[in-house]
UniProtKB/TrEMBL annotation:
GO biological process: methylation
CDD domains (alphabetical): PUA_RlmI (cd21153), RlmI_M_like (cd11572)
GO molecular function: methyltransferase activity
Species, as recorded: Janthinobacterium kumbetense
Chief location: cytoplasm
Pfam families: PUA_3 (PF17785)
Protein name (database record): SAM-dependent methyltransferase
Subcellular location(s) per record: Cytoplasm
InterPro entries cross-referenced by the UniProt entry: PUA, PUA-like_sf, PUA_sf, RlmI-like_PUA
Keywords: Cytoplasm, Methyltransferase, RNA-binding, rRNA processing, S-adenosyl-L-methionine, Transferase
């Protein structure tokens, strides 16, 4: 595991924040291969070696680390990922159950759910498609656990990874998309939003008003 030491005097600026920039970091210790791997788990400590947080480190991103937890006794593991995905979905269960076949719901919005860089939408209810964007090294490294937890929590069998080229390039992540489970979504679906119908490409997110 990596150890990130924060510059003296910069510790207070991290309180309540989800991101750590390079300017706040004194040094990063650990194996070279771990330093180069986007999303490697790191302990963040003060200049006096006091625990601050656990984070996902990415040397290739302007945001050098994204906080997973400020709790010293909360390890970053499959159980944490499962808890956070499940908690996020539970907040939306009522909406998921009521979702129509042409409705798009946002289920997870990154830091709001303690899953920095993850965006998840559901189209067409549980019989439809989960559309995921892994826009940071940390959630990309835990992709398998996230997908498994999403499927278990929602009951949806179709999961598709959408690629935000700009975000993933900025994180040093490969530009990939495709089905992660089940079937790929169709090239175009009809979306109803506030009574207005749109043509939506689930694979890219492009939406155009239906005429």
């Amino acid at each position: 595991m990596l150890i990130i030491t924060i510059k003296q005097g910069k510790e207070k600026s991290l309180l309540g924040q989800s991101w750590i920039y390079a300017s706040a970091i004194e040094k990063v210790e650990g194996k070279p291969q771990e330093k180069m791997k986007p999303g490697s788990t790191a302990i963040v400590q003060s200049s006096s070696k006091q625990f601050i947080a656990r984070a996902a480190y990415n040397s290739k991103s302007q945001i050098r680390a994204r906080i997973w937890s400020f709790k010293e006794d909360e390890p970053v593991d499959h159980a944490l990922i499962k808890r956070r995905v499940k908690a996020a979905i539970e907040k939306k269960l009522s909406a998921i159950k009521k979702a129509g076949e042409n409705q798009l719901l946002t289920l997870i919005k990154g830091e709001d759910e303690g899953l920095p860089g993850l965006v998840v939408q559901l189209f067409g209810g549980v019989q439809g498609y989960l559309i995921c964007e892994f826009n940071a090294g940390g959630v990309d490294a835990w992709k398998v656990a996230i997908v498994q937890s999403l499927m278990a929590s929602t009951g949806c069998a179709n999961v598709y990874e959408r690629c935000d080229d700009l975000m993933r390039k900025g994180e040093g992540l490969p530009l990939i998309d495709g089905a992660l489970a089940g079937e790929e979504p169709p090239d175009e679906v009809m979306l109803t939003d506030n009574g207005v119908r749109y043509a939506l490409d689930l694979k890219t997110g492009h939406k155009s008003k239906f005429r």
